[in-house]
Write a structure and sequence with these properties.
Number of helices: 2
Radius of gyration: 23 Å
Largest sheet: none
Number of strands: 0
Strand content: under 5%
Order of helices and strands: HH
Structural class: mainly alpha
Distance between the termini: 29 Å
Helix content: over 70%
């Protein structure tokens, strides 16, 4: 009787871990998509201003463009981190990687 209960609790724990991993991946994907869309909108806004040197907001436009370029460069690193987190999470959940 106790053995059945322990087995059932372990199974529920594994299901909960898998559901948590899926929710984490889904949340990260949604955040990544929102970030990408936001950066593209900001890029279009920056391109549409087309200020030239000597205009009032030229320095602000240059800084804004630099911030957008920095955001695009960080996207590659974020994708690598997300993939690594998913792989580690799946390995822990499946039992292929022992918990310390």
């Amino acid at each position: 009787m106790l053995q059945k209960f322990v087995t059932k609790v372990r199974k529920l724990d594994e299901e909960a871990s898998m559901n948590a991993a899926i929710a984490l991946v889904g949340g990260l994907v949604v955040l990544g998509i929102l970030g990408w869309v936001g950066l593209n909108i900001m890029d279009e806004v920056s391109d549409s201003t087309a200020l030239t040197e000597g205009d009032t907001f030229y320095n602000a436009s240059v800084d804004f463009t630099a911030a957008i370029e920095t955001g695009f460069s960080w996207q590659k690193i974020i994708i690598i981190v997300v993939v690594a987190a998913v792989v580690i999470s799946v390995l822990y959940t499946s039992g292929l990687m022992p918990r310390m």
